[in-house]
Amino acid sequence: MNRRHFLTQSAGGVAAGAVLPSLARAAEPATPPKASTVYVPGPKPTAVVQPGEFVFAAAHLDHGHITGMCSALIAAGATLKWVFEPDEKKRGDFLKKFPRAKAARSLDEIFADRDVKLVAAAAVTAERGPLGCRVMEAGKDYFVDKAPLTTLEQLAQARAVVARTGRKYGVYYSERLTSEAGMFATDLVKSGVLGRVVQVAGFGPHRLNKATRPAWFFERAKFGGILCDIGSHQCEQFLTYSGATEAKVVHAAVGNFANPETPEFEDFGEATFIGNNGATNQIRVDWFTPDGLSTWGDGRTFILGTKGYIELRKYVNVGQAKGGDHVFLVDGQGEHYIPVAGKVGARFFGEFILDCLHRTEKAMTQAHAFKAAELCIQAQNAAVRLT
């Protein structure tokens, strides 16, 4: 990270006040904060390999995240050669976005191709663990959408196959890995600007868009529960920002407050953890994003340290100009607003490609990826039901 220090303080004012529904005129727009010149993101990552050096395939396209996974790998230099998807429409839509890929008749056709080093997948959540084990047994590395699996039994099996085969089970924890605010915060914390991290609090609201969701999305055994699903993002961020390598669940709860017609679905979840280094974590995830919000969710993360604190407004700064990746930092020098959209990039994907090629663990350790999955499943299993 490129870190520069100047004497100027950068704090902007925000207009305050409430507008009553009875008033006819609209509220005046808030004054946007002034960008900091104290903390500046480093250069964006570029492709790490030449075309054909790192060939991968996509399989089981049950969640739309597969598009982002493949696009980010391609941007880092990877070559998408194959796609396997039994559903003709999903396969056709995917090939329109990635016309250079070829449709495989089976997974075995992909496994037989020695050029393929990685299989990326976004299957039904409960099927991701067994699929990953099959991929690794075939001698390929695996890159899967979160949540990477749904039960502790699947986790134990995946760990065993990793140990036996030496292959990688990578996880797309997108709410940090493709959040420029999240990745810049990773650098800030690592630089020591916050001192010792004491607490991480994460909020992951999502818009449901219920009419467009597949049936499996509302079946508890298939989606794994809300803490297992979108709670996995929050567990991964806690481990990253706090430095904890283990944690215990202190409290967990789930509920279905607004979707009685899908009784197995959970639209609210919360949990509290204590890490093995004393740091704590509080998370809240839900499917209650109002239609009036300009994006799918007002995701925020708060990181408290002994020397300062950070707030990430990842996808929107409510009441300001549209757009995300807002970082707010308060330290011993002052108050800093750091807009990082378009300035940080997503270095994980290039690092992960190189990890696959060189058998290193720079992008994310296997222990970290699995521990985040373990914590969210443990929270889900321990959760009391509120409704």
Overall description:
The protein is of the alpha/beta class and 387 residues long. The chain has two domains: 55-174 and 347-362, Rossmann fold; 176-345 and 378-385, Dihydrodipicolinate Reductase, domain 2 (2-Layer Sandwich), CATH 3.30.360.10. Helices cover 29% and strands 23% of the residues. The chain has helices at residues 65-75, 88-97, 107-111, 128-137, 152-165, 174-177, 180-191, 220-223, 226-229, 231-242, 348-358, 366-382; strands at residues 55-61, 79-84, 102-103, 116-122, 141-145, 169-172, 197-205, 247-255, 268-275, 280-286, 300-305, 309-313, 326-331, 334-339, 384-385. Helix 1 links the parallel strand 1 (55-61) and strand 2. The longest helix has 17 residues, at 366-382.
